[in-house]
Structures are given as structure tokens and as C-alpha cells.
Amino acid sequence: MLKTIYTRVVKAHPVFRRTIILVLQTILAALSYYIAYLLRFDFNIPPLYITVFERTLPILLGIRLITFFYRHLYSSLWRYTTLRDLVTIIKVNLFGSMVFGAVLVFIYGRTFAGVPRSVFAIDFIVVTAALILMRIMVKRIHQRFLAEAPRHGAALVRVAIIDAGPQGIALAREILENPLLNYKLVGFLDDDIIKRRSAILGLPVLGPVSALAKAIARTNIDEVLVVKPDTTTDEITAIREVCARHNARAKFLPTTKSLIDNLPLTSQMHISELEGSRGRAFIDRESDTPFHIDYRRQVVLVTGAAGSIGSELCRQIVQQAPRRLVALDQNESGLYNVGQALRELNPDSRVDLVVGDITNRTKMQAVFRQFQPDYVYHTAAYKHVPLMEDEPIEAVTNNVVGTYNLITAAEAAGCGCFVFISSDKAVNPASVMGMTKFVAERLVTGLELPGGKSLSVRFGNVLESNGSVLPLFRRQVERGGPVTVTHPEVTRYFMSISEAVYLIQIAAGIGAGGEVFLLKMGKPIKILELARKVITAAGLLPGQDIEIVFTGLRPGERLHEPLYWEGENINQTVHPNINVMTQTPPDVAEIKRWIQRMEELCRTMDKPAVAAELARFTNSFAGT
């Protein structure tokens, strides 16, 4: 019955709800004043003071009503009561009691109309305590009623927060005050010795971060929320590995900047549970030491350095102190930002920023002559499938001709290793973008660098990359929806940018030349499920708070993107997370002649002719 009454009041019209709150607070004020007399006279009020009480009560209630109106105590939502609200109540009641005394002096003189001076103090204490306790009680009732009905009947997710600092406490409050998140907070983990064996917000500090495994096992934690802004890459890796071993998920709030965004903290957490659902173990980087490349005496060139993959490559490489890192991109602003970040990561490392377009053959030849790179990681490409369907000339010019410019410049400069970043769109390509990636892949893997090697690395989508669905979904949720999904059955392979870049370098280290390496992506993920996770991570309900709209597959898109053709010769490499595909070497001379013809065709600006010739040439290599 109490729940029914509470629910009706909460859902009532705002004017009606505020009237109820005002009446209730007025009744509490009157009762508090009467209780003050009872306490002053040991529950036996003399008749004289009954008269004093009745004569002064209307004055007190009038003052209380005015002060309640002035500070909007009648309109605040009690279920969101904070310490600031409690301080406001104290200030309002103290001010009201002082005004009450001043009015009595003004009307009745220093006799205060016969009101005992101790009644003023007792009344202030009682009315303040009554208003505070009422708010706390309503807040607890609200939390309990909502917590009894998790979304979609799902069980509450048991979570622990790493870092019991201001950020962790802010997140804890958000979880405690929003039961719709379906979270049950069991405690904190923090390395601060002072916080050991203490309680914060009524929840225990379970120990240091190093005790995470024991805490998960002891308290049955389902998720670990890491809100430490300056968590290092090694710490993130260690936390993920511990969670993976104990079937728990990990979410991260990576930067201090995220803490001042307008989104709730819970909606800013990295959706790392996607990585936990991909059907394979996390990489043990310590066991990979024999495969690591020693960059200390090497010059490394990264194209597309301002992009998602390129910038992460630069970050990981610069921390290994290469002799020289050359970051190349036509995006001048993005390249500048990457350069600033790299110099902060390793101030002693030499980083050269080169603004240039890979389609400018003369510029690329000059860059390779100047820097003489030992390793080249070619990530620069046009990647958006629907856009490239409308711009086949740009796709061919950038993805094919640009790659040709780089690989020939590397050949002339005596480059030791050229690594081309391919895509799962290159498998049995159905789009212009996929076809350009396929042709470039065949060119690179078929070319033999004098004294060096060239190879390709093929993988699917990466989380958090520029243009990926995850940032798009988050932006759509921020705007209040709808979240757009092309098809209810569409799936994609996903892995983290950090992990993809790490494996790219391992492939470069173990490759002999001419291979196409395939990164193991685990199981494909339904984009619809990803959209639902982004919505629920923001504490909202898919289909209710945020609508999901199906827009239909766009030109060039497929329901599923395989990582290799059926019948391709796929073998395991020495690394458990990398496969290799061996192919019949293509006729590189034929590819080069075709590229030269395509350059001439592109200059005619005949888009249909370029698209048709690209499809014909791709199909001839694919044997279709």
C-alpha cells in the first residue's frame, strides 16, 4: 500500500505534488513547534503556555512558509537529496527561527510573547531533523521500490569501483541513486593505505587493486568499474586479464577530461565487455617478448598518423624509443595534435611530423629519400564504404595509387619492412572500398623489396576508431536518440585499437614477406546488441527512453563481413592470435600496368567507368 501511495504521488502533476510537499512540511513545522513545548516542560505543558503556543503558532507557520518558498524547499525532488540539500535545510530553518524571534520582539517586546527562549533552540533542532529525516526516508523508499524491479527482469549486476577518490565516489553516488542501471555496488578497491578497512558511503574498501582477484572471488563481482583517470596501459591490461580469468567485465573511464563532460559517468565507461564476449583470451604480452621489434636503432614511418590506427601505432612505437619516428598525414590539425601527445609520452624521442598526401608521388619519393625508413606502417586510406561507393575515383586514387606510390618509394629507398593495413572488406569484396583494399593487398604482398619484406595485416572493426559505430551510438544517445542500426541481423568483428596495433607489430616481426596475416577477432558481434549496450550503459531503456531505428543496409554494405574466403589456405603462425594466409603470387607487373591505366582513367572523371574497371580487375584476380 505504501508503495502504491508513493508511486501515485511521484507520478502526480507537479503542482499537486508540490502542494502535498508544502502541506506536509507545514504540518511538520507545526508538530515540531508543539514537540518543542513538550520537551521544554517534560511533556506537561502548563495552560498558560498552551495559550502562548496557540497565539504564536500562526506567526511561526507564516514565516516557515515564506522561507520554504524562498529557497524552493517545496519543489525539490526528495529522492535526489544530497548533502547540499541538507545544508540548505539547516540554513533555512535557522534563518526562520531568527526571523520568528525578531517578529515576536517587534510585536510583543522583549518578552517574546511569553515564549521560553529554550523553545526557539529546541524547535529549530526538531524541525530541521524532521525535514532531513523525511527526505532521507523518501530517498530510501524510492531506491528500494525501483531496485525491486530490475530492467527486463534481469538480475542486478554486482560491481566494484577501482579508486575511492572523488571520481569513484561520484560514480558510486550515481549508481546508488539510479537503480535503473541494474547495478548493485559491493565496494571499492584503492591503493591508499589510509582507506584500507574503511567504509565509504556505507560500502567497504575491499583492499588494494592488487587484491582484485580475491575481491571478485569473495564478493561475486560481475563488473569492475575503473575511474582512476591516470590509469596506465599496463594497469589496464592487468585489470582486464584478471577480470577475464574470473569471468568478470571491465569498464574504464580513461581521462580526467571525461569527468567534466555533461554525460553521466556510467555512460562514459568504455564498453570493454565487448572484448570479453569475443570468444578468445586476452593477450599475454609478457610471453610475446621474442616477437617484439627492437626500434631503438630504426627509423619508423607511419602513414595516416592522425587516424585511429596510425596514431595508436605512433604512441606504442614512440614509447619504445625509436631512433626516429616519422608521422605522415594530410590532416594538418590532427597531425599537430598527435605530435603534441607523442612528445608528452616520450620527450627524448625524435618525432618528425610530415604533412603530405600519399597520392603525391613526387612528395612521397622525397620523404623516403630524406628519412630512409627501416619500417613503414601504411594505415592511410579512405575507409567509409557508403562514401566510397559515390566516390570511386577518390577511392582508387587514394587506396590503390597512394599505396603504389608508397611501396615503389619504399622499394627505391631500400626499406626493410613495409606493412599494409588491410580490411575484412577485402574478402570477396562487394564494395568499392573493399575492392581497392583487395587490389592494394595483392600489390603489397606480391612485391619483393630488395633486402626487405612487404606484407599485409587484415582485420575487422576496432572499437573507438574514427567513424566506427560505437562513438556514433554514444552521440545519438547524448542527443536523446534515436539510435540508428542498418539491419537487425548485421554483425561485425571487433577488437580494441590497442590490441590490433600491438598484433600488427607482432605480425611485422614474424613475417618473412609476401604474407597476408589475419588477426583472430573471436566471434562476430551483433550491431543491434552493441546499440542496446550503449543505451543501457547510459542508464536508459532501449525502445523506451531511446528508440532504435533500422535504416537499411547502405550501398556496398553486407550483413556479415568474413575474414577470409572459403578455400583460402589459412594456417596458424607462431603467435596464438595471428593466422597467416598464403596465396599464389600475383603478377605484380600486371598490377602496376593496370594502376597506370587507372590513373589515366581517373583523370577523365568518369565515375561509372572507374567503378566498372575496378570491379572487372578485382573479379579477374578473385577468379570470378
Tell me about this structure:
The chain has 624 residues and is α/β, with parallel strands linked by helices. The chain folds into three domains: 2-147, no CATH class; 151-270, NAD(P)-binding Rossmann-like Domain (Rossmann fold); 371-496 and 507-622, NAD(P)-binding Rossmann-like Domain (Rossmann fold, 3-Layer(aba) Sandwich), CATH 3.40.50. Helices cover 49% and strands 14% of the residues. It is built from 21 helices and 21 strands. The strands form six sheets. Strands 9-8-7-10-11-12-17-21-20 form a nine-stranded mixed sheet, with helices on both faces. Strands 2-1-5-6 form a four-stranded parallel sheet, sandwiched between helices. The radius of gyration is 33 Å and the shape is elongated. The protein starts with a helix and ends with a helix. Residues 147-153, 254-268 and 270-282 have low confidence and may be disordered.
